Amino acid sequence: MARVLITSALPYINGVKHLGNLAGSMLPADVYARFNRLMGHETLFICATDEHGTPAELAAAEAGQSVADYCAEQHQIQARIAEGFALSFDWFGRSSSLANRELTQHFADRLEDAGLIEERTSRQVYSIDDNRFLPDRYVEGTCPHCGFEKARGDQCDNCGRLLDPVDLINPYSAVSGSRRVEIRDTQHLYLRQSEMQDRIRAWVDSRSADWPQLTSSIAYKWLDEGLQDRSITRDLSWGVPVTRKGAPRPGFETKVFYVWFDAPVEYIGATREWSEATGGDWRRWWRTDGGADDVTYVEFMGKDNVAFHTVSFPATILGSGEPWKMVDKLKAFNWLTWYGGKFSTSNKRGVFMDAALELLPADYWRWYLTANAPEGSDSPFTWEAFQASINSDLANVLGNFVNRITKYAESKFAGKVPVDGEAGEDEAWMVRELETRLPLLIAHYEAMEFRKAAAETRAIWAAGNEYLTRAAPWVKYKTSVEAAAVGTRTGLNLAALFGILAQPIIPGAARTILDALGVPEANRSFALMRPGQDHAGLLDVLPRGMSFSPPPVLFAKIEDAKVAEWTARFGGG
């Protein structure tokens, strides 16, 4: 049994996340966590809300709340929505926690002791009307690279370039809209990433073979351009206070650590929160001197977060000089696009997670977003493609199979698993299909190739449908009840197998199938799918003569009228 630590990119606190956020980190992380648990591995799945930084302050001000109250409320909302999508976090923490504050301040002290943090004078935008320095996201203006007129001070949403607020053309305050701004000197702490260049490259070299090309290409791009020293403090009131050896740092009383310095630390902080709440030992997962040397650590995130986790956070960990567990595999995703453009929280563009759950149960979305995961390239979301996938894959291939075989067994065999008859050529064909396809499915999951895993799952469902066409128990029943019994019993066992295989992606429907067929919890693992197992045994798992009840309809087809209604409400087309 392996030990696997899984973290998802932290969803930001400023409102409900859209389907792109779900598809690019939280959902694939959950699918992978569920797979590893089904394989029998000791698995810890950690996530949290990212609560510091300028957007939190701006969103709280817009909502008329204190930042603390706003973040507490939004955390509860996001936790409830995550539960609605069946995201199986072992802990869903908060980056504003005491654990994260203490760890962030600890890392800063270690880095400064190592000579990797220094205080510098920098040039920063000051708003005369607001009477304050403006952190990067408090400044907007025209991008100097592409001319986009609503670029933020940290990054341009149009061209994606990272920015410095002082470089913006015609800057203005995002707080008040005032253009009475000027550039003034201020003091900040800088992480000397340039000093870590060789160490970070050596570490990336040691890991990149296990990373997707998207991940490694982003990391090497930053390294090839040369790592720049980065400011790790901001002029804000909400965040981790800047301290030195446990005391407030003189001159930094009105500053906090930059959100991109403290947010990745929350992976460890949230695990410590989990530890304190459950009695677990967080050091077993994060300290190589505490037992974490046999852990495989896997991160999931969108491509815009990769550089911070392959360069900046590793600089913090390595620079500390302490025996922390570092990421082994980093699965990066491209964008899920909305009719040719980007989903956007700030612009309210696309379908958001709360609205999605109002339209359909979680499994519909989980299936489509996994089967169309933006892995090798951006993946477009359209209502028409969503409708086609649900109606074909879930309603027809899986749902219809389970419905017709269970209803037939109820009608012709009194709702019991048939007893008579033994396997023949049709069943041997199905076994050969499983012998070929099940190892492929396991390999796709292990490689974190989620589109391929979904496609292979569907292919196994489709093979089951072909088996029923071959076996045709409803035809054979007219001449041989025993022959029909074999096909029906095998079909019921396939339905159970399909439920087991569906668990990582569509756990709700999977549970409905397995509960209806009376499959014990102990028999729902992937143990029988491992190489070397007797795949023929998968077709005779349900006890002969056992009673069962057909499940309700698993998936309703999406009608054209619904697509028209959703298009009118959310856009598209």
Task: Please tell me about this protein's structure.
With 573 residues, this protein is of the alpha/beta class. A hairpin with an 8-residue loop joins strand 6 and strand 7. The strands form 6 sheets. Strands 3-2-1-15-16 form a 5-stranded parallel sheet. A 4-stranded antiparallel sheet has the order 5-4-9-10. A 3-stranded antiparallel sheet has the order 7-6-8, with no helix packed on it. The model has no long low-confidence stretch (mean pLDDT 95). It has 19 helices and 19 strands. Helix content is 46%, strand content 15%.
Based on the model shown, name its key terms.
573 residues, 19 helices, 19 strands, 4-stranded antiparallel sheet
Which strand order do you get reading across the main beta sheet?
3-2-1-15-16
Task: Give the CA-based shape.
Answer: elongated
Query: What structural class is derived from the secondary structure elements?
Result: alpha/beta
Low-confidence stretches: none
Query: Treating each run of at least 4 consecutive H or I residues as one helix, how many helices?
Result: 19
Distance between the termini: 48 Å
Whole-angstrom Rg: 27 Å
Q: How helix-rich are the residues, as a percent range?
A: 40-55%
Largest sheet: 5 strands, parallel
